[in-house]
Each structure stands twice: as structure tokens, then as C-alpha cells.
Specification:
2 domains, 326 residues, alpha/beta, six-stranded parallel sheet, 15% strand, binds serine, UDP-galactose 4-epimerase, domain 1, three-stranded parallel sheet, single chain, globular, Rossmann fold
Length: 326
């Protein structure tokens, strides 16, 4: 049987990126054609009620195969992952979810004739031996976290499926993503999201990184833009596939706090660095994304000032309605 509409599956749809990506895909491609999936039960009503939702554990190959066949999926956005800090407390789980999950998705996609797969990588693919300023596209990839290990291996695995099987797999190395839909969980860049909720609600925040720890970051609208534009890029123009560096802004906790203080002058920040400091210090401070700019015209819209203003506006309005949920 043939069908005309493009059918999309999002794994990890309840996560930080999935919960913003899914509604955007539903608006663009039709709510009924975008299937949200996640392992968690506490999926938000907004996601559950705005289109099809199913529970899916990406470590179960038969369940993935059945889902692809039943829903005749054309495109997959594979957003399930255990992030860096949680991965250090449960390295075996991080390997299972990130590595086996990606392998299961690629195998099922290949066998089901899926047209295109998105698998994100991360700045966590880099390590302490990588040049930290303007980190090049082609460079040393020797991460020291299990999350990073799975991201490098995942990039290689995805590129293998492109070369060996002609499966169209694409991905970019996301920096820390800042958003106001769903709080991230278990990452090293999470402070840059939580700080906004704390600033709006309590006008103070205790940061788990040192004041001068610079990391590459990106606002969610740019993250969604990069994801969609890479997925829509002309395959023939792509020299890379699963490992594009993408960049938007870099800042330290003290720079972010100063930017927040422009809007909330009484905002106070304290520092209590923990084990995540070591992870952050093994990652780049800034990223060279010229390959993405050349091969699919990547260009971000937000900087530190415009992102901060927008975050505080959205969360401020939500707090006034008593719906901040933090
Ligand atoms: N945001 C992720 C983390 O901190 C990096 O990809 O783990």
C-alpha cells in the first residue's frame, strides 16, 4: 500500500529537545503524521494530546521494527539519550541506551526502508586533547566521558550506514541547548537553563560550574532551525553526514549572570563547582562551524543578549500566571 504523507517518528520526544521539536514538526507536517515516542510515562499532556504518542524503549529492536512497520515511517529523529553527567553515574546504562539504541534505530531504519534518519552528536565528542578555541571540524576525538564515547562511536556508526548501506543519516554536534519547554536532565550544560528559572523565581542561583567556565551554547529556536535545515539539505552537497560542528554563542556563568542582571538587577549567583566542572573543562570553549555553513548554509539567529531577553520574557510571563513549574 502506498501513502502520500511523510510519516515521522521522534524518539525521546519527552526530552528537552524532543518536546520542542515534536510540536514544530507537527505544525509543519501535520499532527497526525508525527508520532512522538518516549520510554517515560510522564509525558506532558501537550505532547500526548496534540498527536499520536507511543511508549518506545529504543533498546528493544523488535519494538522499533514493529513501530516502523505499523506506522510506515519515512523519517526518524532519534533524540533519546543519556547525557554526560548522568552517564558518569551510570556508564553502563549510557552505553546501552546511546549505543545500542542508535544501532537498533539504524538497523530497523535500513530494513524498513526509512528514507532519512537524524541522530544528534554533541560537543561531548571532543576531549581534553582537542584544541578548545574554535574547535575544528576535523580534530582529535578522545572524549573522557561515557556520553562522549557513545557520541564519537555513534557518529562513526552513522557514517558507516551512509557509506555501506546508502542510508541517509544526518547529525550535528549540538552545543549546550537553552530552552523553556522542558528542563534538561543529567547534562553538564544544564546550569545555563536552570539559571533562568531560578532568576525569575528566586533572583538567586547556585552554579555547579566555576564562574569562568566557557562553553558553546545555543538557543532552542536555532537548535530546531539547524536540525530542520540539515534534514532538508541537498544530499549531494553534503561532504559530512553525522558530525557537523554547529555554533551560535559561547559564554561563561559569570557572563550569563551579568546579562541576566541587565533585566533583573537584584539577581545573585554563587558558585559550588562539582564533578561536572571536570567534564566542562574537557570540552571546547568555542566551535568552528564552517563546514555546516558551506555545506548547508547554517547560520544562527540568536546571541547571548537576544536569547537572554527572550528566555526571561517567556519564563517571566509563565511565572506571573503561576505556571513556571520550577
Ligand atoms: N548538553 C549535553 C550535556 O551537557 C552536551 O551535549 O551533557
Amino acid at each position: 500500500m502506498t501513502h502520500n504523507n511523510t510519516k515521522i517518528l521522534v524518539t525521546g520526544a519527552g526530552g528537552q529537545i524532543g518536546s520542542a521539536l515534536t510540536p514544530m514538526l507537527r505544525t509543519r507536517f501535520g499532527a497526525g503524521d508525527v508520532i512522538a515516542s518516549d520510554i517515560r510515562d510522564d509525558i506532558s499532556p501537550a505532547l500526548r494530546d496534540s498527536g499520536p504518542y507511543l511508549k518506545l524503549d529504543v533498546t528493544q529492536p523488535d519494538d522499533i521494527r514493529r513501530t516502523l512497520e505499523e506506522h510506515r515511517i519515512d523519517i526518524i529523529y532519534h533524540m533519546s539519550a543519556i547525557l554526560s553527567a548522568k552517564g558518569e553515574s551510570q556508564p553502563q546504562l549510557a552505553w546501552t541506551v546511546n549505543m545500542n539504541g542508535t544501532f537498533n534505530i539504524l538497523e530497523a531504519a535500513r530494513n524498513a526502508g526509512v528514507r532519512r534518519v537524524f541522530v544528534p552528536s554533541s560537543i561531548a565528542a571532543f576531549g581534553p586533547e582537542t584544541p578548545r578555541e574554535d574547535t575544528p571540524q576535523e580534530t582529535i576525538l578522545r572524549p573522557k566521558t561515557m556520553y562522549g564515547v557513545t557520541k564519537v562511536a555513534g557518529e562513526l556508526l552513522c557514517d558507516y550506514y551512509v557509506l555501506r548501506y546508502g542510508l541517509d543519516v544526518r547529525g550535528c554536534r549540538y552545543p549546550g541547548i537553552i530552552s523553556h519547554e522542558t528542563l534538561p536532565g543529567g547534562g553538564t550544560t544544564d546550569y545555563a537553563v536552570e539559571i533562568f528559572y531560578a532568576a525569575v523565581k528566586y533572583q538567586e542561583f547556585t552554579c555547579f560550574l566555576k564562574p569562568d567556565t566557557m562553553l558553546p551554547m545555543m538557543y532552542m529556536p536555532d537548535c530546531l532551525k539547524a536540525t530542520c535545515e540539515l534534514m532538508e539539505a541537498d544530499f549531494d552537497r553534503l561532504q559530512h553526514h553525522s558530525d557537523f560542528n554547529i555554533s551560535s554563542m559561547s559564554f561563561t556563568p559569570e557572563e550569563l549572570a551579568a546579562e541576566i542582571r541587565i533585566h533583573i538587577p537584584e539577581f545573585k549567583i554563587e558558585y559550588e563547582p562539582d564533578s561536572r566542572q571536570q567534564i566542562a573543562e574537557s570540552w571546547p570553549r568555542s566551535i568552528d562551524d564552517s563546514a555546516a555553513r558551506e555545506e548547508w548554509d547554517w547560520k544562527p539567529d540568536f546571541n547571548l543578549a537576544t536569547m537572554t531577553e527572550d528566555m526571561l520574557r517567556v519564563l517571566g510571563e509563565r511565572h506571573t500566571r503561576g505556571a513556571l513549574g520550577y
